[in-house]
Design goal:
2 copies of one chain form a homodimer.
Chain A lengths: L1 H9 L6 H8 L2 E6 L4 E3 L7 E15 L5 E7 L4 E2 L2 H6 L6 E14 H10 L1 H27 L2 H11 L3 H4 L2 H8 L3 H10 L3
Antiparallel strand pairs in A: 1-6, 2-6, 3-4, 3-5, 3-6
């Protein structure tokens, strides 16, 4: 299963088998059941998780108990409460499994160690962070610029696999629309 | 004026005078008039800009000619069309000056050169990108979770200086609310 991580690393840099084995020795594999939690609000966030299989979600629960989905993650994506992870603060999000999942966890200390020891890992994480930054800017622009129907069509186009894995009510929460509005879109969408 | 950049770099790493002079030799200073453009839609985006003084905005113009503000930048912030800059693609945004400004421009090639030559610069840009990523996640959560009044109050609290520099109609565009709604908030806000 580590080949999935290796492929992602090698999109940005080349690695010898020894280097990859060394990198892998800093990760911890974890199998999770559906609904199992990886991160819980008010707890420490020790790890960033690379997804090997399955599907997870990161979300905030507001004072009325309503869930707001910040992020989904499927194979090849990274997920955690990034604010808490990077700032070494308590979680304000929950991360749990939409379906049975396998992840590779990398602790904050091990991430910093790998970046300090291997310049190419520092470069890898810089490039990943830049890509993530751009993706979030595009999501904000879409929230400012597009109506809910257009946001739905864009998400279908960019991540069709999410629609096979994620219940409609969670997609609605991610898009910031009601479940009823989303049902209307999914019937009339031409995509 | 380069001391402002040095201070930001030294929040993350220590630098000798020689190292800082070498880094600075990769930047180009630019003075801009009010309304002058740094980035224009459909053009190449050669540089990322560190702001020494003044105030700038990055925005998208939709098919109806309406501006959607993605980002402001004041002293100590970085601004460009990051999607176009990182992906070496044409701009989809405009960046221009809300007031007379001074910036230090760093080209894509010079940024990559500095990161390759100096591990500590690679680390600096990784950490900056991580912080930017977290700030955008918080903005998305606020857009999903908070009503416009709460988003306005949060922005006042986090960036009071913006309200001295930026016209109300631009703040309204950034928050995704109408100018009239914003005026109502600014009268009743307790902050």
């Amino acid at each position: 299963m580590s080949i999935i991580l290796r492929n992602q690393l090698e999109e940005h840099t080349s690695l010898s088998n020894e280097e990859f084995d060394y990198i892998m020795s800093h990760f911890e594999a974890k199998k999770l059941k559906k609904h199992q939690f990886l991160v819980q609000e008010n707890e420490n966030v020790e790890k960033n998780y690379f997804v090997i299989s399955g599907c997870l979600k990161a979300y905030h629960v507001d004072s009325n108990g309503k869930e707001h989905i910040l992020q989904f993650a499927i194979q090849n994506w990274w997920i955690t409460d990034f604010q808490a992870f990077f700032n070494r603060s308590k979680a304000t999000l929950f991360v749990d499994c939409i379906e049975q999942s396998e992840v590779l966890g990398l602790s904050f200390d091990n991430a910093e160690k790998l970046c300090a020891e291997m310049h190419k890992m520092e470069q890898f994480f810089r490039k990943k962070s830049n890509s993530g930054y751009v993706a979030l800017q595009q999501r904000i622009l879409s929230m400012l610029n597009n109506n809910p129907q257009e946001r739905y069509d864009k998400l279908v186009l960019q991540n069709p696999i999410l629609f096979q894995k994620v219940p409609k009510k969670l997609i609605a929460s991610y898009l910031g629309v009601s479940r009823e509005t989303l049902s209307r879109f999914s019937k009339i969408s031409k995509l």
